[in-house]
Amino acid sequence: PPFNAPNSAFHTREISTQSIQATHFGLQSEAQSAMPQPLLFFLFALSCCFANSACDFYDITAHQRASGKQASSGYCESWRFNVEVDNSRNWTVVPMGCKDYVRDYMLAGQYDLDVDLACREAELYAQGVTLEGDGMDAWIFDIDDTALSNLPYYLANGLGTLPFNRESWVEWETQAAAPALAPTLSLYNQLIDAQWTIFFLTGRREARRNVTIENLLRSGYKGWAGLILRQEADIGITAVAFKSAKRLQLQQQGYRIRGSMGDQWSDLTGFAVGEHTFKLPNCMYYIS
After folding, report:
1. How many other β-carbons are positioned within 10 Å of the β-carbon of residue 128?
2. Interacting residues of 244 by C-beta distance below 8 A, sequence separation 6+
3. pLDDT (tens digit per residue) in 222-263
4. Which of 37, 63, 95, 258 has its CA 20 to 30 A from that of 184?
5. CA–CA distance from 116 to each of 109, 121, 184, 278 (Å)?
6. CA 40 centroid distance within chain
């Protein structure tokens, strides 16, 4: 049923995320043994893949800074390209030499053009999909820097050049002040008008449900079918494993995931990803 109350919770038939957590840490449990063996193996391999990825990344600007030179925009453009195509993984901060480049990219118009084109491509795709008319054709949106923009927060906090600070992030989240990404909101409204069933799937925690709902409503989003957040059992699980499991739950309920949009590859990879995914740019942070 459509979402119609701020305190409504989205309930699904649960695949125990504790079993995923147990798999992630190599533990055995009754819930784990109840899961299909191919799924267990896939989750284990998925977690190992991300856990073993190098946490360091090649700083393309380091040699220039060592010689006392400012990193050129060409070097930073190459860095951003490799971020967007997922060659650079598990990076924790934007190279210091690229802070001005990231600011220019985010504020001078190119970011807006990139987001707009991605959403236009999604609109064209959605217009070509024939819905079954049973309310089971679903589209999934991530929230942060997909539906809502956290650019005001990052402008005030180093544009990704500083390590993530949970305390300041929670303060920002609590304000429920993140504006909508206008092209995403336009796509969202078109999907609502066309009778798609919309779910938000986010790495935000259950404790942040009310402020998240407030922010979505304040920014113009309404009429979604479900808001899926991390529960206590999901803490410590990689985003790709968490979101894959939640998408699978939707599919097991009979939903057909026809489209999905996110700003991180972890929003769009794993399993049960749906028929078509759309990646928005984000060179300010990385989530595995």
Report:
1. 7
2. 43, 46, 270, 271, 272, 273
3. 999 999 999 999 999 999 999 999 999 999 999 999 999 999
4. 95
5. 11, 9, 8, 12
6. 23
For 41-50, write each residue's pLDDT tens digit: 444 444 444 4
Q: Which of the four pLDDT bands, split at 50, 70 and 90, describes residue 202?
A: very high
The better pLDDT of the pair 8, 128 is held by 128
Name the strand (E) or helix (H) holding 105. Answer: helix 99-107
Contact 52, 46 (CB under 8 A): no
Exposure on the CB side of residue 220, measured as CA atoms within 13 A: 17
Rounded to whole angstroms, how far apart are CA atoms 278 and 116? 12
* pTM, rounded to two decimals: 0.79
**Token pair of 95, please?**
């190279």
pLDDT recorded at residue 64: 53
SS3 164: coil
- Which tokens go with 121? 């491509």
Q: How many CB atoms sit inside 10 A of residue 72's CB? A: 15
Asked if residue 116 lies in contact with residue 277, where contact means CB atoms within 8 angstroms, the answer is: no
Pull the structure tokens for residue 229: 């957040």
Count Cβ atoms within 10 A of the Cβ of residue 205 and give its class: 0-12 exposed, 13-18 middle, 19 or more buried. middle
What is the C-alpha end-to-end distance of the chain, expressed in Å? Answer: 31
3-state helix, strand, coil in the chain (%, to 5): 50, 10, 40
